[in-house]
Amino acid sequence: MFWRHGGGYRLMRSIIWLLLWPLERMTVVGLEKIPAEGGALVVANHQSMLDIPVIGTRVKRSITFVARDTLRKNPILRFVLHTCGGITVKRGSADRAALAAIIAALEAGECVAIFPEGTRSKDGEVKAFQRGALVVAKRAGVPIIPVGLAGTGAAWPAGQALPGPGRIGMVVGDAIAPDTPDAAEVARAAVAELVLRADAARGARG
């Protein structure tokens, strides 16, 4: 029963928070803009493997993360995804099963988080969003919540075995209606602006 009612997610979040706390100094702004209940699609920029732990440990409600299926090759990440109820997507193909699973989760009132760039940004710039990634919000009729992350790429760059110390900023923006014309570009522009604010916030903290 413990695992079925979110106990596994809460336990994993607590463990990850304890591991990150000594390393990362985080500045988080706008968490109240994430709905406390009901379906919502969180869209964020992607710089690092640290992005999921940062969002997962800072947002109070449970989040269903969408990740590429290749992460399951790592036994630790496979365990984390299984424990936290993550949804994996086959890279480079139209994964209808994953799409249906995401829509079902949103319609069930879950908060789902995706990284619409599709891969990590090597230079920190927010790349074009894959349009299909935001179609799920329209089909499920849920708000799109933009999130900007800064500093995660420097703390845990690609090729580095474990995260190092760093200053991280996270800023949550205003909700975007699911039926907004060209929602992918509107969301990308919002996230790009939030990344700049997140970078300024972490720098101001010193």
Automatic annotation (TrEMBL):
SMART domains: PlsC (SM00563). GO terms for molecular function: 1-acylglycerol-3-phosphate O-acyltransferase activity. CDD domains: LPLAT_AGPAT-like. Pfam families: Acyltransferase (PF01553). It catalyses: a 1-acyl-sn-glycero-3-phosphate + an acyl-CoA = a 1,2-diacyl-sn-glycero-3-phosphate + CoA. SUPFAM superfamilies: Glycerol-3-phosphate (1)-acyltransferase. Keywords: Acyltransferase, Lipid biosynthesis, Lipid metabolism, Phospholipid biosynthesis, Phospholipid metabolism, Transferase. It comes from the Bacteria. InterPro entries: AGP_acyltrans (IPR004552), Plipid/glycerol_acylTrfase (IPR002123). Residues 40-152 form the Phospholipid/glycerol acyltransferase domain. One of its GO terms (cellular component) is membrane. Belongs to the 1-acyl-sn-glycerol-3-phosphate acyltransferase family. This is 1-acyl-sn-glycerol-3-phosphate acyltransferase. It comes from Rohdeia mirabilis. The gene is plsC.
